[in-house]
Design goal:
Chains A, B: It catalyses: L-glutamate 5-semialdehyde + phosphate + NADP(+) = L-glutamyl 5-phosphate + NADPH + H(+). Chains A, B: It is found in: Cytoplasm. Chains A, B: Pathway: Amino-acid biosynthesis; L-proline biosynthesis; L-glutamate 5-semialdehyde from L-glutamate: step 2/2. 2 copies of one chain form a homodimer. Chain A is 41% helix and 21% strand. By secondary structure, chain A is of the alpha/beta class. Chain A has 2 domains: 235 residues, Aldehyde Dehydrogenase, Chain A, domain 1 (3-Layer(aba) Sandwich); 141 residues, Aldehyde Dehydrogenase, Chain A, domain 2 (3-Layer(aba) Sandwich). In chain A, the strands form 4 sheets. The first copy, chain A, has a 7-stranded parallel β-sheet with strand order 10-9-11-8-7-12-13, sandwiched between helices. A 4-stranded parallel β-sheet of chain A has the order 5-4-3-6, sandwiched between helices. In chain A, strand 3, helix 6 and strand 4 form a beta-alpha-beta unit. In chain A, helix 1 packs across helix 8 and helix 2 crosses helix 7. The first copy, chain A, is globular. At the A-B interface, helix 10, helix 14, strand 13 and strand 16 of A face helix 10, helix 14, strand 13 and strand 16 of B. Strand 16 of chain A pairs parallel with strand 13 of chain B.
Chain lengths: 420, 420
């Protein structure tokens, strides 16, 4: 790769102009053409597997030489199965319901003007991500299916892998006669390009950051372009006094320990002071190998370590949980209102009134009754995929897939109506 | 009014904290309570009419002394009828369908988890506006009905009027037992407070600017909080070769001249080179007193003045229109793509295929066939009111009323489901 001859702002301006042109074409293509493009991309990825794996091996070797952590190397590493899975995911996206053109509502006004709201693509989506090369393909596929042009900016550790995946993906699109600029990959790892993307209001319609908290925080702090992101998943499970103990144990174990590194993992367990089986619940969670940090009442139930004030606001993403004993539903609601991050919270109870109050009053994107917080996932919600989980309050909230990548316009069909 | 003792950031922080608490209460009140609060506010405004008019007289006198333009004084001035109309508008908002709690969709997952998406208020809305005191009440009423707390920051010219209207409005809410901090008015005209509102991410969920282009541009440039706004309404009417001449004249006259100062007014007339009655159309529009500025071909049809390059990008908001002759539908689409502001554009034609292409391909919030652009209005669209017309692409687009002031959350009701 040669050094860029354009400034970061000029580069993004040029890419944005091409993306806008592609978006205009893409928005008018019928579903079948976008689906065909994606099937072409999936086939091209399968065909390019040797080149993709060779590029990935270079990234992994460079990462090992640079001393990347084992976790980062795992996120970076591809193998035959992972490349196959990446291609299969593209085929799956191509099979989803198309939101573009879907009518949201319609009405005929008293003057005879026939109005309808119809979903249309957003336009140009910028994706800023870190070391997982599969994001290159996953994000691009969702954007293509929803009729959007995409500008991808991946992490420098995965640069060769991303270029190989992007080359295959766009070859596949081109074979299906989709515009060449439908999916563009920023051709430099210069960090200033991220800043230029964040400032590109009017060129990029929406930025979606995919990565760790520091990336997302930087994007949210600097962007002049709208951002769809989640920052923290400080998720709670509240075990109510009326919870079934076996169900409580199963839900809490799954919410915390099924996978500890995902944003839907439980970080804080709230136990109703009136719950009779608190000590057994604590013991069951501790028996999974989870480190527990509790307040004094939780320690009295068997929690080994004392929590400090920061624990209630910490997203561990690890086999660690904070445990607090609260005074019933009101205590749980107050704790979540103070410490929650508006991502996913759950209540376990057999009392329907309390459950409905919890569902109504917890101000989070996802609120669950008698189910694990680890269901916070577009696939589990029936969306077929997800580009992220939004914890902001505007546009889309919770798991975001194709619908969240569209907007709408109002169409009015008249017979010469004037306001007069 | 005494000088504020808090810094602008401290003031907004304190107001935001109170607003968040009020929003939590408001979001859980049933429709009836919010409706009762609004009827109380309307009654209190009627009862306070003498005090409101006295306050307004002070603002008007100060404005005259300061040399405000006649147009600004007209926007500022209240009389008995205008106050009655303000109160009546609040009663009308109280009669609208309540979006809060409305189910968007639902599904039972294969594992039995019952999912639904339900509309909830956004939370805390900041309204930044200029000299029209009625915005104090109109905006507050829409926010209350949609379950949101509001922080209002009006123009300094209307400070006394806004205080009087706000005092009556909140007295009425309080009489119906709604939280005192449901609607707060910034108690200073210090411009730095606007800056503090724009930076108040996490305290204010959404900023809606209501006013002229310089206000909206400042808000969009500086805000760290999401903004719902429209900047320009550079709206086009394209008169196609297959247009009925009588309909074309009626639509164009209405779109331009019914009211020239509103954002839905036509600014540019595009005439198909193949349209046989172009000269008559130009003459009809000129006969209304509209100044016309055209390209060479439009001048050949009778347009008196030559347009320069800036005319195609100008929102006149006056009895002035740019006129261009274009090569059919493709020429019109290209002109709108280059110069439009994504607000409202219309085609007049008897050719359904061309009309449907125009509806599909023009990338604007509102696209109309055989109807005047002046229908761009929440009331005309059956929304019962509007807080503005959004020309951005995220969250809400076009006329925004109660639904646009809500977001949603996902509710899941299970029986102990775990992902395992």
């Amino acid at each position: 790769m040669t050094a860029p001859v354009l400034s970061p702002a000029e580069l993004i301006d040029a890419m944005g102009t091409r993306a806008r042109a592609a978006a205009g074409v893409l928005a008018r293509l019928p579903s079948e053409r976008r689906r065909a493009g994606l099937h072409g991309a999936a086939a091209a990825i399968r065909a390019a597997r040797p080149a993709i794996l060779a590029a990935n091996a270079r990234d992994v070797a460079a990462g090992e030489a640079a001393g990347l952590s084992a976790a980062m190397l795992d996120r970076l590493r591809l193998d035959e199965d992972r490349v196959s899975a990446i291609a299969a995911a593209v085929d799956q996206v191509a099979a989803l319901d198309d939101p573009v053109g879907r009518e949201i509502d319609r009405a005929v006004r008293p003057n005879g003007l026939a109005l309808s709201r119809v979903r249309v693509p957003i336009g140009v989506i910028g994706i800023i991500y870190e070391s997982r090369p599969n994001v290159t393909v996953d994000a691009a596929a969702l954007c293509v299916m929803s009729g959007n042009a995409t500008i991808l900016r991946g992490g420098s550790e995965a640069a060769a892998s991303n270029r190989a995946l992007h080359a295959a993906f766009t070859d596949g699109l081109a074979a299906a006669d989709l515009p060449a600029e439908t999916v563009q990959l920023v051709p430099t790892t210069d960090r200033a390009v991220v800043g230029a993307m964040l400032m590109a209001a009017g060129m990029i319609d929406l930025i979606i950051p995919r990565g760790g908290k520091s990336l997302v925080a930087r994007v949210q702090a600097e962007a002049r372009v709208p951002v769809l992101a989640h920052l923290d998943g400080i998720n709670h499970v509240y075990v109510d006094g009326a919870a079934d103990p076996a169900m409580a144990e199963a839900v809490v174990r799954d919410a915390k320990m099924r996978r500890t590194g995902i944003c839907g993992a439980m970080e804080t367990l709230l136990i109703d002071r009136a719950y009779p089986a608190g000590a057994a619940l604590v013991a069951a969670l501790a028996a999974t190998g989870c480190t527990l940090r509790g307040d004094a009442a939780a320690q009295a139930l068997g929690v080994a370590e004392a929590a400090d004030a920061t624990d209630w606001d910490t997203e561990y993403l690890d086999a660690v949980a904070a445990v607090a004993v609260v005074d019933g539903l009101d205590g749980a609601l107050a704790h979540i209102a103070r410490h929650g991050s508006h991502h996913t919270d759950a209540i376990v109870t057999g009392d329907e009134d309390r459950a409905e109050r919890f569902l109504a009053e917890v101000d989070s994107a996802i609120v669950l009754w008698n189910a694990s917080t680890q269901f916070a996932d577009g696939g589990e919600f029936g969306l077929g995929a997800e580009i992220g989980i939004a914890t902001g309050r505007l546009h889309a909230r919770g798991p975001v897939a194709l619908e969240g990548l569209t907007t709408y316009k109002w169409l009015g069909r008249g017979t010469g109506q004037v306001r007069g």
